[in-house]
Amino acid sequence: MGQILGKIDVETPKFEVIHSNLPDYEIRKYPPSVVAQVSYDPSDLRGDRDGGFMILASYIGAVGDPQNLKDQKSEKIAMTAPVITGGGKNCVTMGFLLPSKYKTTGEAPVATDGRVMLKEEGERKYGVVRFSGVATEALVAEKAEKLRECLERDGYRVVGEVVLARYNPPWTLPPFRTNDVMLPVND
Predict the structure, then answer these.
(1) In sequence order, what are the beta bridge partners of 119?
(2) Residue 180's beta-bridge partner residues?
(3) What's the CATH number where 149 sits?
């Protein structure tokens, strides 16, 4: 019942809020992490922008046996939040942050599906706006544009593309969903 009402009961990244200008945005500093990600053209996955989810869910073992190897055995990996998505119409990159016990890609199980890549992300800063509801493409684009304007107005330099972070499973009622639109920044 908790997830339906928006309870987030999985590991989430520990970030530090280094500047808050709510309700417009906050600047967050994230620690290093390991990400399992897949990049794809949605048209190759029946036009589904979220088609990478099942590929990543198979890697961690959320659906069936884990599609990975560590010491010649598969290892179930706990689900975390958020699921992160970036990219455009013809190339989407979706990622799962691996649990914090994995400090490097060498510590994480290797994917048996060649589409899944492991990546180490160093410490990074994002301008972030949080919102609830369904994260439609139009709403994300609107939030990202307003966020970009606010950041630039306040002297932050946006240094990358928008990232959507979704914290809840699809069965969470829309008003209780937690989403972040994030833009990487340098100050």
Answers:
(1) 35
(2) 130, 165
(3) 3.20.80.10
CA atoms within 13 A on the CB side of 183: 23
- Residue 147 forms beta bridges with which residues? none
- For residue 48, is pLDDT > 90? no
- Are 136 and 176 members of one domain? yes
What is the structure's pLDDT at 64? 94
Range of the domain at 163: 16-31+123-186
Are residues 75 and 139 located together in one domain of the fold?
Answer: no
| Helix H or strand E encompassing 35 | strand 33-40
- pTM of the full structure: 0.94
Per-residue pLDDT at 150: 97
Residue 86, both tokens = 């970036």
Q: Are 16 and 111 in contact (CB under 8 A)?
A: no
Torsions phi, psi for 41 (to 5 deg): -90, 120
CA distances from residue 54 to 19, 81, 140, 180 in whole angstroms, order as listed:
35, 15, 22, 21
